[in-house]
Amino acid sequence: xxxxxxxxxxxxxxxxxxxxxxxxxxxxxxxxxxxxxxxxxxxxxxxxxxxxxxxxxxxxxxxxxxxxxxxxxxxxxxxxxxxxxxxxxxxxxxxxxxxxxxxxxxxxxxxxxxxxxxxxxxxxxxxxxxxxxxxxxxxxxxxxxxxxxxxxxxxxxxxxxxxxxxxxxxxxxxxxxxxxxxxxxxxxxxxxxxxxxxxxxxxxxxxxxxxxxxxxxxxxxxxxxxxxxxxxxxxxxxxxxxxxxxxxxxxxxxxxxxxxxxxxxxxxxxxxxxxxxxxxxxxxxxxxxxxxxxxxxxxxxxxxxxxxxxxxxxxxxxxxxxxxxxxxxxxxxxxxxxxxxxxxxxxxxxxxxxxxxxxxxxxxxxxxxxxxxxxxxxxxxxxxxxxxxxxxxxxxxxxxxxxxxxxxxxxxxxxxxxxxxxxxxxxxxxxxxxxxxxxxxxxxxxxxxxxxxxxxxxxxxxxxxxxxxxxxxxxxxxxxxxxxxxxxxxxxxxxxxxxxxxxxxxxxxxxxxxxxxxxxxxxxxxxxxxxxxxxxxxxxxxxxxxxxxxxxxxxxxxxxxxxxxxxxxxxxxxxxxxxxxxxxxxxxxxxxxxxxxxxxxxxxxxxxxxxxxxxxxxxxxxxxxxxxxxxxxxxxxxxxxxxxxxxxxxxxxxxxxxxxxxxxxxxxxxxxxxxxxxxxx
Length: 681
What we know:
20% of the residues lie in helices and 19% in strands. The chain has an eight-stranded parallel beta barrel.
């Protein structure tokens, strides 16, 4: 359907589609395009859009093409076609047959075909994604950012879809797997003690980027950095999709829960040169991606391409995206997937002070946001100990691996355990300022790998259902099945697995640092041994809410250990705790089975410690026993000890310890509190 629109030259700023009372200004970056067409669609399935050709003399200012179309309103659907030279040796891969979405588009709708989008010269007009014009107004009802201190964060890593998609969620069918579904489960998050949710990618991503017959479930295949993923929305109206996300954020904030987004600024769904053309490749392939001397994609992400993050235009797009999600969508922070890629220059060489990371860290709009880095990439750049910048918190993979090794009784792990529970000061160092413990994000499990239940139930990965002959996923998981692979009716093994789960949870939440819990670990969610469920949008990945009652013992234990970690400031101080005894700061005293005699030997599998805060009068005695036999530990005789946790017990009840020798069962953790002080400061 063709319309006669009144058009004007337009402006080169801002990028994207900007709505005003008079109409919409469109602007895109494409320095070497010869011709650009703006396509205006009347509805999602429109195959005969109005085509407006931009004049290279009137509608182009240096690198930017722009036009103003009068009379357009919110929810207007649009796309682009771009004509330019195909010169693969120079990285120019223009394809004028493809309808492109706007890199700065705030909403995306439409059916599409990844295969068709990958065939050069084949028109995709009938099945293409479309960008949409939206406005920024929203009624926040006076609810603003919680601004929870980093030391008080308890992070819950969650997949928006999988959180409520299972029928057992009791969420109304049209809201299952959506932002609206999350809202209905806020009381549950509050009951756990969660203060921040870390959402797996919610930017629009390519669900078709998966093996035949599978769905890209996790979302680490971005199509756009500004638009929410359509499948997470109850409505298919663009403006309402934006409002649904904002409503979820508002209601989480109302409950005091922050929203951290897992963001993927290291690659896109366009993959290598054989992949689809959705937007960036069609506008300026050589600008947006790191290419080799033949004009082909360099791959540091393991996904076919690498975003050229330190190119000035790409760098601006990244921090414009971050600014948008903070200013307009009110999110509280970001976890950067494969963040080490952002430290690579335009040739892929690592830089000491990368411009994009400095731009993010020093951006005043982002000054109060949480910044979390996954400090490695798929090409071997591992920066847990030296990630750039001062503000960044990091995913501490060393913590994950070392705690797993200790709990399953590897030798030589006692001294390492001591370092990890004190915040890994031995490996984490700031570039310019001293690293502080709450910048270490501690986790035992995350989306990538086994669930906590599967960590104690499987020795090997079981990924056959992914369709890649079990080649995908990590081969070295530091897991232990406790004697039988997978599900079992063996009562002894079932009891041991429960105890091991409690051990992991206790160490996680009482370590110095910021704890992160994987969705469903508190109710023993299982993926049946699949440690790479990225393409399993089904009950393998979804949260089965019936597991709450089925595994009530672990749910209750999780609530209890989180409450202990939050109620006593000793477990969330802003400075490192060490062995130097002082009257004005917390300190630790190490013990073994005998007082003041810790066994640091290679053969040792146990450690005890006193945590003391002279200011708040908090005083704890914690015993870690990963040995396969019961051990007796001396307790300081001058105090009366109250038991808070013993992971060998089914039910945790506070009780006074009657003598000064405590028998710790095999593979158990015990937490005692000085019984003279019952304060919770």
